[in-house]
Amino acid sequence: MSHPYKAALQQAHDAADAYLAASSDSRVFPDADALEHLKAFDEPMPTASKTEAETLALLVDHGSPATVSGMGGRYFGFVTGGSVPVSVGANMIAGAWDQCPSSATNSPIGVKLEEVVSRWLLELLALPASCGVGLTTGATMANFTALATARHALLARAGWHVENDGLYGAPEVKVIVSAEVHVTVEKALSMLGFGKKRVTRVPVDSNGAMIATELPELDALTIVCTQAGNVNSGAIDPIGDIAERAGAAGAWVHVDGAFGLWGRMIPAVAPKLEGLEKAHSFATDAHKWLNTPYDCGIVICRDATAQHAAMATNAPYLKEGANAPKDMVPEFSRRARAVEVWAALRTLGREGLTEMFERCCTHAQAFASGLEASGFTILNEVMLNQVVATIGTEADIAAIQKHVEQSGVCWFGVTRWKGKPAFRISVSSWRTTHEDVDLSLDAIKAAKKAVLG
Ligand SMILES: *Cc1c(COP(=O)(O)O)cnc(C)c1O
Q1: What is the pTM of this model?
Q2: I want to staple 79 with a disulfide (CB 3.0 to 4.6 A). Which of 171, 284, 385, 426 is the partner?
Q3: How far does residue 50's CA lie from ligand 1's centre (Å)?
């Protein structure tokens, strides 16, 4: 039966199918020609209407070749993950549904799936079932939500209602971060009025983990921002120890675990996260290592009431039950981002998830030993999915990275680690295979040969 959506949907489905069919063989970073063709989008704003078919064709013809291919198995930049097939399918259905799960009156299914996903996530991460959970755009906003909750809770205890009275004249909240704090935590702190420069930075060890004994004095007006998974090395702060000290002082401990929080599910990594449940708030991403499509972070606060107090919106036309999604995160209207998370969790199950995370860690080890055997120096302790490697000068590193990028075989970025120029490899896609690692190592070796002889 024909309907107004049919033609566009069919065209989109066919294009998506062709794109994904080619994804394991296609170039990882677009070539110069594809980038040149982006000019096709530099049109004036059309006055007259066009056909849907023509618009979608332009998107596919000149858009697809200019994508960075994260859906194959050989993208190792940043920490991006891929998307497991069921989450891509669920994403298409969610697109057709166009639900806004602000509350159950707005989307019964959207809210139901958020409830289910929240319960499952707390189980998987071994956190108390009473925690507040919210789905945000990403870990940046998950960090923001958690830190807003911390701000509320600490100031409320001191008799100050920050949501009503702001920070003007409020008791000062001290913020402690690690020397390796992620830039998005700094951004969240700045959005909350704490100021990026007003924080105390705690020194880190050689792998980038906070040294707990270097923590300054903590009190009931202190927030300590810890990290599970350094964006370069994968290092995990001694969160259990820190939470123990902080708990005694009445301080709040937040965990930025954008990808490393999933270490809770990896038997070899979980001991490093022992005692994590004593922290007060947690941020992670679904769109990174959990391998669901973009636009999904997860915030968890042990004090659900404080999270609600920091985020709730009330208006006369809103009559909602406890902890409606809109009252647990910054966004009011948004997509039903639990759909893809639900689909991935339900399909993979606990065992499938652990297996996916472990596989990435195994591949990271293979990268480290392969690179070491080819003359590179590994700068980090490879205990998660991250590898930091170096060779030669900064210019050599840049040239090797460029050479690999141009080969189209794989992609990774450059960084600085402990003052040394390096490149970083993050294995975070379900799709990466042993063959992908071998092909990528070959491309890196060829680049090294071309650059260093
Ligand atoms: C990616 C990342 C973030 C930010 O997450 P987004 O989903 O990009 O907002 C925060 N912290 C760490 C450690 C990260 O790797």
Answers
A1: 0.97
A2: 426
A3: 39
